[in-house]
Write a structure and sequence with these properties.
Blueprint lengths: L3 E10 L7 H14 L3 E17 L2 E13 L4 H9 L4 E8 L5 H23 L37 H13 L6
Antiparallel strand pairs: 1-3, 1-4, 2-3
Length: 178
């Protein structure tokens, strides 16, 4: 059976100091060598904001490795990567060989996205012309305001004797049973 081409993207937690990222990357590459993979390309996408928090972390350092490996080693490799606590998430997919032009276009797109994210974080997002214009507000039809209800007078207090007398009158009434 021939080796297939794979792409592995993994995210290193920002809780890990950048000085240790080299060690983590080396561990991942050693795992690949353990399974006789041939690494063809390495790409560091840098620090990026994730769309949702993972383990109370909002940002992560993205790394991409392209390699050739025998398909029967995929499950074992994924199990070993899952056991690495420094890696928040990873995705391994089979891929095809990219031409130099496609590879350059992919790198340019990643660089543009990283630049946009840096500008967004620093508060210099879009230029005024690029910003979406707010939608105009609709006018509410001119209707007279609804009148407020006047507070009603509080009922006068009744003594217990008066209440008992009224209750006796009601109970003595023969119409009640009909």
């Amino acid at each position: 059976m021939d080796k297939k081409r794979y792409e592995l993207t993994y995210i290193i937690s920002t809780a890990i100091p950048e000085t240790e990222h080299g060690d983590i990357t080396a561990k991942v590459e050693n795992l690949l060598q353990k399974f006789e993979a041939e690494i063809t390309e390495r790409q560091d996408l840098g620090k990026r904001k994730m769309s949702y928090m993972i383990d109370k972390v909002r940002h992560g350092y993205y790394r991409v490795l392209e390699f050739n490996m025998m398909p029967e080693h995929v499950d074992s490799l994924q199990q070993d990567i899952k056991l690495m606590p420094q890696i928040l998430r990873f995705l391994m997919v089979s891929s095809r060989q990219l031409s130099d032009k496609e590879r350059a276009a992919r790198r340019d797109a990643a660089d543009r996205q990283a630049e946009e994210e840096k500008q967004e974080e620093s508060g210099h997002s879009r230029s005024r012309e690029d910003r979406p214009r707010p939608t105009p507000r609709r006018k509410v039809a001119d209707t007279p305001p609804t009148p407020r209800k006047q507070p009603t007078e509080a009922p006068t207090k009744i003594s217990l004797e008066d209440l008992d007398q009224k209750l006796d009158e009601i109970l003595e009434n023969k119409d009640l049973l009909k």
